[in-house]
Amino acid sequence: MATANLQFLQNPFPRPTFSSKYLVMRAPKMVFKCGCSSSSSVGGDAFSLTSSSKCDVDYLGESTKGDLNINLKHLENFGLDGQATLEGPIEQVARLEAEEAGSLLRDLGIPSPSAARLSPRGMFCTRTLNLRSISAIGYDMDYTLIHYNVMAWEGRAYDYCMENLKSMGFPVEGLAFDPDLVIRGLVIDKEKGNLVKADRFGYVKRAMHGTKMLSTRAVSEMYGRELVDLRKESQWEFLNTLFSVSEAVAYMQMVDRLDDGVIPADLGPLDYKGLYKAVGKALFRAHVEGQLKSEIMSKPELFVEPDPELPLALLDQKEAGKKLLLITNSDYHYTDKMMQHSFNRFLPNDMGWRDLFDMVIVSARKPEFFQMSHPLYEVVTGEGLMRPCFKTRTGGLYSGGSAQMVENSLNIHGDEILYVGDHIYTDVSQSKVHLRWRTALICRELEEETLAATNMDDRELTESMQKLLIVMQRLDEKIAPLLEADGELFNKRWGFLSRAGLWDKSHLMRQIEKYADIYTSRVSNFLNYTPFMYFRSQEQTLAHDTYSHYCSEHNGSSTN
Question: Could you tell me which PANTHER family the record lists for this protein (predicted)?
Fold first, then answer.
């Protein structure tokens, strides 16, 4: 066995925090130092890394670039006989070695990947991803590297939107921001003035007209077999990100005002689609005019929720030899102010946030950044003065450009790059579809949803449902409240973010599985994993798997 696939052998040293000269290892009441380099060899002559020129594809279809290999000729450095070490059934050898590695990790106080996956801050894998083969990691900023207080940030965006609507002649008196009205992953039906939650196939499971939830019967009568088709942009608007919250709340409240007939006639004959355009225009003005961002820049502590572990997670990746990129649509002044506030105080040795990144690109104009080429400018002064640029350099700060420029300048392409963002379309979908970059989605609501789900007694609920279904015709009135209560601990109107109905996935979850290779609640969760982690997706069960399992059990028992 020349290549080791065990988790411990992939990363034989504990996860580092930071150090400019050494990798300083974290363990309870002890500090280890390892002078090894991640560039060519690990552990002297006993280990080596697979180079780009010699990499292949493993049995899971992942690149072997960066894989840790054992040099059998030098195992005697550890007092081991290479041949003797590999004797015996490989399953037994692997189990014993894994147990020993697990014991060592426990002694060092390092949680196992499986334990982290079960926590609200775990990394969840939809498509196998070997971080060893990743050479560069790109990050979005807003709601990715920087998490905003939704009530504060979106609340102010809502306020500015309402002020603009009022100046346009819309009646907004008595309205207030209510973030519980919506959750990420819902879809606005601009033709009917509804907000809907669809399952993975596009069937509408829950709906709200204005701010009033519709009954199950009303939803069925209104939508029947109609499917949510996100390609039909004239009707459907998907809430991709937390930035969508303020717009959706304002729109649904204005739908009520339209239904009540209190919108002045001099605004013209408005339907629900026209109303949506008016709300969007008002919110767009709030962003473009700059008052909102100026207020946030003046008092970032009121809007930003700091995460002290996040800079350490990026330092961990940088020490592991990954090139780090920041690619954001925000302008330079806003980016610099927010990153200084969120990162600098948590960095060691007078490091600044710019020191983390091999390249910073502001005003990137995503998703076009991933689709086409735009002029590239270099930001050359602290005041944001720019000059045209045709070639990038390490450590540079740029505006505009394109993803292909990034690939060419780093000489890294396609699936060697992991891009991390919070927007399913702008960040995750387009980088994968156009460039085949690997992708990670940040969804902070996962933490609250996971905790809410663990507070439910799933076994008791399932057993109760089974009993009730036997006498379903007589007890419909008892089953219905159970179904309606599913996910109430997360959101009383819409239930869980990831589910639609009792056992089905939501349309949001389908988008995540389609475009995001891994997903998690925050970037700092990377700190719970080695930068060389090999994420493997879980076994996907099929509808007929239960039948196959049933047959194998009964066929086996009949032969005994």
Answer: 5'-NUCLEOTIDASE DOMAIN-CONTAINING (PTHR12103), HAD-SUPERFAMILY HYDROLASE, SUBFAMILY IG, 5'-NUCLEOTIDASE (PTHR12103:SF22)
What tokens does 314 get? 């990026």
Q: Which helix (H) or strand (E) holds 455?
A: none
What are the residue ranges in the chain where pLDDT is below 70?
A: 1-47, 59, 70-88, 90-91, 93-94, 105, 108, 110-118, 452-488, 501-503, 542-560
Collapse the DSSP code of 42 into the 3-class scheme (helix H, G, I; strand E, B; otherwise coil) and give the result.
strand
Domain that holds residue 428: 118-147+307-454+472-537
Q: Do residues 198 and 223 share a domain?
A: yes
Q: Is position 334 within any domain? A: yes
Reference 296, options 399, 146, 138, 421; nearest CA is 146
Q: Cα–Cα distance between 210 and 252 in angstroms, integer?
A: 4
In this structure, the answer to whether residues 250 and 391 fall within a common structural domain is: no
Per-residue H/E/C for 114-175: HHHHCCCCCCEECCCEEHHHCCEEEECCECCCEEECHHHHHHHHHHHHHHHHHHCCCCCCCC
Cα atoms in the 13 Å half-sphere on the side-chain side of 481: 4
How far apart are alpha carbons 235 and 20 in whole angstroms? 54
Question: Between β-strands 47-49 and 41-42, what pairing exists: parallel, antiparallel or unpaired?
Answer: antiparallel
Residues 6+ apart with CB under 8 A from 338: 141, 146, 296, 297, 300, 304, 330
- Asked which of 281, 298, 315 is the last residue of a domain, the reply is 298
The CATH number assigned to the domain holding 495 equals 3.40.50.1000
The pair of structure tokens assigned to 499 is 């589910």
CA pair distance 258, 24, nearest whole angstrom: 62
How many structural domains does the chain have? 2
Q: Are residues 126 and 263 in the same domain?
A: no
Same domain, 260 and 368: no
**Average pLDDT value for the chain:** 82
For residue 392, tell me if it sits in a domain. Answer: yes
Query: How far apart are alpha carbons 505 and 263 in whole angstroms?
Result: 38
Residues 160 and 273 in one domain: yes
Position 108 in a domain: no
How many other CB atoms are found less than 10 A from the CB of residue 285? 18
* CB contact set of 436 (below 8 Å; sequence gap of 6+): 414, 415
Do 265 and 182 lie in one domain? The reply is yes
DSSP 413: -
Pairing relation of β-strands 194-198 and 187-189?
antiparallel
Cα R_g (the chain), whole angstroms? 26
Tell me which of 298, 331, 364 is where a domain ends. 298
Q: Which pLDDT tens digit goes with each residue over 321-339?
A: 999 999 999 999 999 999 9
Whole-prediction pTM:
0.79
Q: Domain check: are 376 and 520 in the same one?
A: yes
Same domain as 241, residue 390: no
Mutual angle of helices 245-259 and 150-167, in 10-degree steps: 40
Interval 65-92: pLDDT, tens:
877 776 666 656 555 555 555 556 766 7
